[in-house]
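Database export, one record per block. Field names are fixed; values are copied verbatim from the stored entry.
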Amino acid sequence: MPDLLALTLTLKPLPAAAGAPAPRWWGRAVHALWLDVVAQIDPALAQSIHDGSDLRPYTLSTLMGRFPDGRIAADEPCRLRITALQPEMSDLLARAVTTGPLSPDGNPVTLDYHGFRVVKADWEEGPWTGQADYTSLAANSLAGGAQPPKRLTMRFASPTLFKSRGRYMPVPLPEHLFGSLLRRWNAFSPIAFPDEVQRYAAECLAIARYDLRTRAIEVKNKGKRPGAIGEMAYVSVCYDRYWMSVIHTLAAFARFGGAGAGVTMGLGQCRLED
């Protein structure tokens, strides 16, 4: 299996779930489902994830779809997205959606006590789906003949926020975005990039354009936490071929690795815009 795998699942609610109130944010429910799937297929891997660092080798979206009047609609398909960041997790994810609990022929799944059936699993190459290897992502930018562009645009599809100095920052400033991507890349990739990448992002990348909106999600104890959705373009004001090659590599990695806090709870779903 590849190092990196991103797929989407299409689900339809079971008759008993139709008309029930829908949670405003399904991130925790999706996370609970995924942990149960991992435990069913590979208990040892589930335990190693539990005992490991805070950086998990996967990301998860919330449940995406239309919920008229805040309720689950009988005929409305929903989607969720899962990515894997290391070969072992990619293999488990592929097994889960082909012959395991998340396969279209499998048993119903439960999200926040509501029953759904998986009707489709898609990992064909697309803006939010596909597979890649760390070496190939790095080679595309670092070993290419052409110089990487001075400018790049990132799309933030779910609320994205960053924890900095004990506070949450709901704006994808260059140093926060690429510092987050760097930490996740170095945690799972066999090719490590230097910590100075974050310094380059802070000192040499500027915001060229943005079209962002704030969206708050509910957290524990009915609290609210704001994040940014939309687009932001970055431009190098002190161009260096090597550092911009690394920046473009991390930007390409973003559709698998996510950015910022809460990427296992539906936050930080982002990608490089072509």
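Remark 1: The chain has two domains: 4-122, 133-272.
Remark 2: The two ends are 26 Å apart (CA to CA).
End of record.
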